[in-house]
Amino acid sequence: MSYDPNNIFAKILRGEIPCKKVYEDTHALAFHDIRPQAPTHVLVIPKGPYVSFDDFSAKASAAEIAGFVAAVGKVARDLGVATSGYRLIANHGANSHQEVPHFHVHILGGRALGPMLVK
Ligand code: AMP
Predict the structure, then answer these.
(1) Annotated catalytic residue 104
(2) Disulfide-capable partner of 51 in 11, 55, 83, 94 (CB 3.0 to 4.6 Å)?
(3) Does some domain include residue 100?
């Protein structure tokens, strides 16, 4: 699947639509999910044009990968969920129900999250 530069997160990165920004650095942008599934639900996206984790892990540079992973950890700590616990989710492809074709990690926390999968 090729990268669609008109996906909603690409538009957020270009500043064409707003987001509730939590953090930004060279490699990553973090913002609140528009339909939160937990008291803390933040999305972290890389700045480069990667469709999903599969694409990112295969094509991103070592600096992009290191920067992105560091940003996810920092955002979780800054949100205050590192001590209470959190879950990371990265959906890839049809079976995962990935909706937005720009790689993103969900940080979920703020309450006991229950079992990993409902069914
Ligand atoms: P996924 O199913 O992993 O692709 O998740 C996409 C997520 O993006 C969903 O949790 C949506 O609620 C969220 N989302 C969609 N549009 C926006 C937006 N404009 N701002 C913030 N979050 C969004």
Answers:
(1) yes
(2) 55
(3) yes
Asked if residue 112 is part of any domain, the answer here is: no
* 38 vs 95: CA distance, rounded Å: 22
Cα–Cα distance for residue pair 54/69, rounded to 1 Å: 15
Q: Could you tell me if the CB of 94 is within 6 A of ligand 1?
A: no
Determine the pLDDT at residue 59. 98
Q: Which residue has the tokens 């094509």?
A: 59
Q: In one letter, which amino acid is 64?
A: E
Total structural domains within the chain: 1
- Taking the CA of residue 31 as reference, the ligand 1 atom at the shortest distance is 21
Does 34 fall in a domain?
A: yes
Q: Which domain holds residue 31?
A: 8-107
Q: Per-residue pLDDT tens for 8-53?
A: 999 999 999 999 999 999 999 999 999 999 999 999 999 999 999 9
The domain that contains 31 carries what CATH number? 3.30.428.10
Per the residue annotation, which of 27, 41, 102, 104 is the catalytic one? 104
